[in-house]
Amino acid sequence: MTMTINPLDSALEAWLSNNDQRLHDDLFEFLRIPSVSANSAHKADVARAADWVHAHLARLGFTTETIATPGHPVVLGEWRKAPKGAPTVLVYGHYDVQPAEPLELWTSPAFEPTIRDGNIYARGSVDDKGQLWLHIAAIEAHLAARGTLPVNLIVLAEGEEEVGSDNLAPFIEQHRARLQCEAVVISDSTMFAPGIPSILSSLRGLAYFEINVTGPNSDLHSGMYGGAVVNPATALARIIASFHDANGKVAIPGFYDAVRPFPDAVRAQMKQLPFDELDFKKQLAVDALGGEPGYTTLEKLWTRPTCEVNGLLSGYTGEGAKTVLPGTSMAKVSCRLVPDQDPETTRTLVEAHVRAAAPAGVTVTVTALHGGHPWRAELEGPVFDAAARALATAFGREPVIIGEGGSIPVVNDFARILKAPVLLVGFGLPGENAHAPDEWISQDNFRRGMRAIAALWDEMAPK
Amino acid sequence: MTMTINPLDSALEAWLSNNDQRLHDDLFEFLRIPSVSANSAHKADVARAADWVHAHLARLGFTTETIATPGHPVVLGEWRKAPKGAPTVLVYGHYDVQPAEPLELWTSPAFEPTIRDGNIYARGSVDDKGQLWLHIAAIEAHLAARGTLPVNLIVLAEGEEEVGSDNLAPFIEQHRARLQCEAVVISDSTMFAPGIPSILSSLRGLAYFEINVTGPNSDLHSGMYGGAVVNPATALARIIASFHDANGKVAIPGFYDAVRPFPDAVRAQMKQLPFDELDFKKQLAVDALGGEPGYTTLEKLWTRPTCEVNGLLSGYTGEGAKTVLPGTSMAKVSCRLVPDQDPETTRTLVEAHVRAAAPAGVTVTVTALHGGHPWRAELEGPVFDAAARALATAFGREPVIIGEGGSIPVVNDFARILKAPVLLVGFGLPGENAHAPDEWISQDNFRRGMRAIAALWDEMAPK
Questions:
Q1: Looking at the structure, do residues B220 and B358 belong to the same domain, yes or no?
Q2: From B305, B332, B384, B442, which residue has the greatest number of CB atoms within 10 Å?
Q3: Does residue A309 sit at the B interface (CB-CB below 8 Å)?
């Protein structure tokens, strides 16, 4: 990518500069509401945070509705007065936060926003109130500076992201027509590094299993039976060992068949990202990394599927020695998936492999516990190009394409149900403590984020 | 083996027949004492059982002493009036018993001996009061019928066998000179099957380890890190898988080097034992057995070393799915050893193998938790030959040689400290419930046991 970097429209820039303190003040007010969705003691606070979002959207002239769900409500704001031919964009964010405990590990109180060293510290500062608010602030900039918006906007703020978003997919299904749009924009993730704006290209999916191996009908004395009976713990270890070849590549037949390679250009760009492998190893206190040969660490994390053991249990695990030959053994095993793998096919492949690898003398079961589809962004087209230009405007350099090894289920829900491209542009940073004490967002990123999103509406408008 | 079967001396046979009821009555009195060594509430009962043994030996004219230990006392009886040139034999047994709980599962009360279907049911009936008493009864037969014994006898009865015999090895060390003997005879084990008298040829030793694998310095998110970090659970599984080859033979280099093969004649005899593999599988509810190729199931259990997993623990083992890449993993692994393997050399071999099998990116430790030496009987010589003849006299057929996959530490203590051959001839039977409710000894075996031991003293006397 090489691009001309456009400056932000001067009226928007002037308004954002002149109102910087007030935009901080409003965010701080939002952050002071302890809207912990996981804790029923905070139910009223969660409702108060929904009301806060509702009020701010309504004040901007959005048609706003707070819609009940079986859990916490969804706040839906709509503004559909853009010029004919303008696209409709759905902005998604969440107004609930993680619990703040352990409170004693916070340098300043979790729900009293405090600026230190250019960072705003508070629960929800980056996940996701700060990032939701910078979208609303960008909208206000347009409306205040110009009296209008260049695109139609739907803002959807939910209150259950931190407890699994159980009610969101049904909500999107139910309101599918109303939510119809040309793009979904989500800011709930991080940039690669300070000063490097980033567009998220992919999320890995998940296929999570429990494997149970059953041998003799009870635990046996390892002296009286050892050496003649198939040991379920040994059998399980041999099954797990068969999941990878000697080099670390997954050896389950057919596992990679559905993998769609990333475009060479994206891989080439990922290879150029300033990733410090020594530092990564030092952080984890390991002397070597592992995984599939032929890929960089970032490629392994962002673009390649895995098969990892999440848990093991068999026999005696207490202190000292007990001479037991276990009757059963159990492993939790999960595969991270990349497009176009899917959880159900993966389950079939893993189960067939486990059955083939299990020796006579034991029986095995493979139970699917959890699954999620992988996602890959559209890395070309008008939405992506507009985002690249808008981020360049705000950060003074073109964005990089990054990946994410984990999953964000709502991304798939939006893409699947609304059949619109989803753009993930986040303004968090590594080390932001999203789910830990001392959560923070960089003040600079908060400011650049408002400008990037303000620019995005202009960049998405028909020329 | 083919031998002429000698009848029991008629005077001994007559006395044992005439006193059968009284010998039962005395045993029942002994069994009514709830000498549970594990339970301090029974401390006085344990002392009462020691007194009972003391009194019965003293009554026979034994120089008898009850010697305190840090735990329960040892009763030591000596009779050294045999003709010049007669050997001295040490008889070992224990007067303590396992707890009887759960009491509600006993058909008749645990401490009220009851005969049903030719079996004597009571806690301690077979383990070991019944078998200790049949030795004392055989002594009484000689002294009553003939006024003398053909060998010098030491009877050593301990009260801590069911709690680990912690004080016995120091006791033997301390009284080594007094306990000097030509043979140790122990009846605290089982015969191969009803009607088949058995001499125990071997006990397996033990080398028990805990293996700890450490990877990253904390549990990681399996999405954010999976595929690039060496997973300690997977690494452990691969290490365990490397312990055996594809056929089930232990693949730790050097593992079998010290194994001294059993004599072909003993192996040939073991192969002829009526062992029902189908029934064995049915009891365990498995469709196939495992272990080292080239050996029968009994040979695997009695004559070959093993490497078994006793426990596995890593990561998340609760209900459902948790996407964790564990920071550590742990296995309990133990090797059963056969002569001339030893625990310390085995530890060295296992540790070297584990270190070689561990991938870069994790560190491993191997901690030795417990060890015990294997034991093999002298299967020829005057003691063995005398036992074979005596068992044939009592059971009407020559004995078979059997093994035992577990360990009985006191056997090694006697052999090691006194440097005398140890003869294990037991009169229990499979299914005797030694440590379970409804423990029993066959009345027929009790009677034949008294006769076998009475014959043994004659067979051990110089001709």
A1: yes
A2: B332
A3: yes
